[in-house]
Amino acid sequence: MYYLVPPPSQQHQHSSYTMASVRFMVTPTKIDDIPGLSDTSPDLSSRSSSRVRFSSRESVPETTRSEGMSDFSVATTSLATVAADPASDKISNPRDVTEDMSQTSITGEQCQLLDPGHKKDLHNYLNNSNYEDGDEYFDKNLALFEEEMDTRPKVSSLLNRMANYTNLTQGAREHEEAENITEGKKKPTKIPQMGTFMGVYLPCLQNIFGVILFLRLTWVVGTAGVLQAFAIVFMCCSCTLLTAISMSAIATNGVVPAGGSYFMISRALGPEFGGAVGLCFYLGTTFAAAMYILGAIEIFLMYIVPAAAIFHSEDILKESAAMLNNMRVYGSAFLLLMVLVVFVGVRYVNKFASLFLACVIVSILAIYAGAIKSSFSPPSFPVCMLGNRTLSRRHIDVCAKTQEQGNITVPTRLWGLFCNSSKQLNATCDEYFAHNNVTFIQGIPGLASGIITENLWASYLQKGEIVEKPSIHSVDVLGAMNQEYVLADITTSFTLLVGIFFPSVTGIMAGSNRSGDLKDAQKSIPIGTILAILTTSFVYLSNVVLFGACIEGVALRDKFGDAVDGNLVVGTLSWPSPWVIVIGSFFSTCGAGLQSLTGAPRLLQAIAKDNIIPFLRVFGHGKANGEPTWALLLTAGIAELGILIASLDLVAPILSMFFLMCYLFVNLACALQTLLRTPNWRPRFRYYHWALSFMGMSICLALMFISSWYYAIIAMVIAGMIYKYIEYQGAEKEWGDGIRGLSLSAARFALLRLEEGPPHTKNWRPQLLVLLKLDEDLHVKHPRLLTFASQLKAGKGLTIVGSVMVGNFLDTYGEALAAEQTIKHLMESERVKGFCQVVVAAKVREGISHLIQSCGLGGMKHNTVVMGWPSGWRQSEDARAWKTFIGTVRVTTAARLALLVAKNIAFFPSNADPFVEGNIDVWWIVHDGGMLMLLPFLLKQHKVWRKCKIRIFTVAQLEDNSIQMKKDLATFLYHLRIEAEVEVVEMHDSDISAYTYERTLMMEQRSQMLRQMRLSKTERDREVGELCVLRREKEYGGKLLLRGYSLVFLKAQLVKDRNSMLRLTSIGSDEDEETETYQEKVHMTWTKDKYMASRVQKAKTLEGFQDLLNMKPDHSNVRRMHTAVKLNEVIVNKSHDAKLVLLNMPGPPRNPEGDENYMEFLEVLTEGLERVLLVRGGGSEVITIYS
């Protein structure tokens, strides 16, 4: 019952209260447990239930509790645990706050339970946080569910929470809010209002358009030709389009918090794939930052301020090395500057994103404007040619060999370059220079020139080869490879160009990364992303055609613009000025680098916070506002490695690998979810198909190996290592991913294919059901039994670990779960791969029977039961232990299962203590399927038993030919491919010894004595009742009715005493059917008849004990004892020093009367042996000589 309200006089002692939001956690209690209350409410006092939560917001004053509160209010209020709501400013508890009782959820009027005039019945489990006189919502409409409101909330509250769900954002709003908090500014949280255009379309455009468009696309077109360049761009764009379709399906299958592709892949494919691909995506984004920085440095040093170069070289072979050093120095400086910008203020990066996007759009529009203008007024950018070879204009003033100065012909600077710096016209010049004329051609002939016909075909070059125009005639002489020619700086091929171009189509995840800022992410992400990809694909494909139709081929193949006065080639086409492209591309590239340095640390932080890769845990922390400081430092370090490579053409294929792998798994996730048809796969985006996802996955894989097969293998190895590392560490995340669904489908398919009947002998392997016993603290009593099971894992079979808890399942469900967790932890420590099942049953034997019958599924059922020997059964007065053991043996035999009983299990070795020598002795007395041969072979596969030798003993009778038996056994083991020593032990007939006779007699006397000592249930009740009456009469002087005690109370006390006495005196079984069932009235008084009956019973007992001294043992028992004694003598003689002894386990007797004798026989059979494994086959062959 709940007693939360003090008397009305105590309710308004304080005038000023500070309102705080609290939550009452009330533990109901019985009315009897409250001091000072009499039993006036029997209908309520019997109620005691689980905890009920009051989740209303209450008024709580901050003053201390009044000293004048009644004892009743103090005692009852202490029953409530007051927990502070997260929204409140202070944490309150019953000792330092006083509830405003006029505002509490249960009014004082309703809590006057002792008032006989109380009309309203307040139920014990009323879960109404705002219950008032006129509010009967709960007790009328939802009264049936009031006890389940904690775990099963109302639909209205659930819908309210779901409708107001806020995504975890990583967009601009989050960064600004975080920095505003650190600066002391508290701004109200804004609801995400970004639409498709501003939230997805434009960010995707900004991230897709990048440095490759301005610096390398013209070179790709000139090298590969229009047709192959078109194919390259089309393949890359198709890859991203198909990936966007798959991504749209995943992104619209539920609410997607920010996290982009990492979140989608990890939640769709599981923590292993999620971590592996997430790290690959992180590395790709980090190397993208390095690529953008290198692109910005190339624009800066080549086209904006060439004089800023620190390293110079006049030698053409050393000039490229000098440029790489310049890239490293300036790239490191740029990286440091950008890292500082990101560290100091991320919001400035987000604010300038619009400026960077404007630069990209203006630059692209300038290209289209220049292409259109070139159709009627092409710009003047002459390209100087020597024969058909392209000359660099960096050191040439006039494109001619000689020039007229005052009617005098004088050599030009070009003459001096090819004629050993001579100014004489009769000087000896280069052979090719002497035989070919110097001409110039228009670098940009224009859209209407028809130059596209020459640019259709590829012109791949080797490193150092001269860029030539095949259509110009020249004298075919070699000449010197002068540095004034435009030379190829790298060897080009179709595959190389694919790897270099692909980064220009990445960035399609920008919309999904901003999902927290979107008003309707499930609508905006598909539309905005696909439209952005279509737009950029159109721009790329149209630029391929326009570049091929407007620009001369030799200018296209001139990567750094040497033939056009050092200008950016695409800049020469643009209108109104090449500087539009140069400046625009520089700022857009810097912006893209900043965006990468902003996004990559947050991606790493998200992976670290998921806690699936332990060594990355440190990178989940950062500044107070959540900024990933440590992740930013690691990102800067990795980006520096990319900058030290210093070549844009070498860095681009690296990040292509990582992005392609990321996109591959996005397509795989969509295809997998679609094919599995999981119930939760219900995307709003309908225009997807598993074939499209599979095609996208295939294109990604093909592009990886086309661009660089060794980079592809390295990326896969890295991802595979991360996958196995997460798997090895034990990924405990359960995200409802598709790989789990795939495993489920594969398991179902495999189980349906497994044979329901027994497997073929060649396929037989021990499928273990290990029965463990738990103590009162739910700890495993014999963990070495599980260790032994782990040493049999060479069989590669199923392992089920089961245990039984006695009780009612409804009451002990929580304890069963705790026991299951304990067993699972023990299985992990012993490295046992298997399943755990704890059964709650009224009796242990029933629970074990249920386990043996119901464990497993389909063809994956256990065929072997492993259990321990009930040690100490002789000393124990409780017969339940050995009766449970024999019952388990009978159930196992009935189920036709094999049984392994480990005796002295505490002496079995642990996995950390392997034997360095010793023997595993097998005593093959009867054949029951070959288990005795197979088990030692499996044990020897484990490191603990590997150095032990197998010895097999068999028993020969007088009529057997022991020599032939030994030969046959050796041949049999040879065919079984088992290496073992063979020995045949001859057992001759001998007379029964006096020891055997005496041992049998002692066994039967003990059994008879225990049977006579066991009383029927009725007799025990009668005697205990008499003892209780005598004790009461002695204690209270013969008065049964004492003052202050009712007759009902005394009867209840007698019942309690009798039950305790029964528990102390009972030595029988826990099975009800083994006691007499007839009922007889229990005498509660001491009468003369009762006294005479007890005298008769005592006389019978004395006569029974006299008979024990005169009894003779049963002949069959003597024979069995003789066999046990003789076998034990032989086994101890041969195997007393063996590390393990395996022998056949005899079956239990058909008559249960001989169960205790059966236990004695087994005890005698195994006496004097340190480790024994009793083996009882299941009746089927488990080993064969055939292949």
What is this structure, in a nutshell?
One of its GO terms (biological process) is potassium ion import across plasma membrane. The protein has 1187 residues and is α/β, with parallel strands linked by helices.
| CATH level 3 topology of the largest domain | Amino acid/polyamine transporter I
> What would you call the structural class?
alpha/beta
CATH architecture label of the largest domain:
Up-down Bundle
* The named CATH superfamily of the largest domain: Amino acid/polyamine transporter I
Query: Approximately how much helix is present in the residues?
Result: 40-55%
How much β-strand is present in the residues? 5-15%
SSE order and pairing:
Elements: E1 22-26, H1 42-45, E2 52-54, H2 71-77, E3 80-84, H3 137-141, H4 155-163, H5 172-182, H6 196-208, H7 211-215, H8 217-251, H9 260-269, H10 271-304, H11 316-344, H12 346-351, H13 353-374, E4 382-386, E5 389-390, E6 402-404, E7 409-411, H14 413-418, H15 431-435, E8 438-442, H16 494-501, H17 510-513, H18 521-550, H19 553-556, H20 569-573, H21 578-609, H22 629-645, H23 648-676, H24 690-707, H25 709-729, H26 738-753, E9 768-772, H27 784-791, E10 799-806, H28 809-829, E11 835-841, H29 844-854, E12 864-868, H30 880-894, E13 898-903, E14 919-924, H31 931-940, E15 949-956, H32 962-975, E16 981-986, H33 994-1013, H34 1017-1036, H35 1047-1065, H36 1088-1110, H37 1115-1135, E17 1140-1144, H38 1155-1165, E18 1172-1176
Parallel strand pairs: 9-10, 9-12, 10-11, 12-13, 14-15, 14-17, 15-16, 17-18
Antiparallel strand pairs: 1-2, 1-3, 4-5, 4-8, 6-7, 13-18
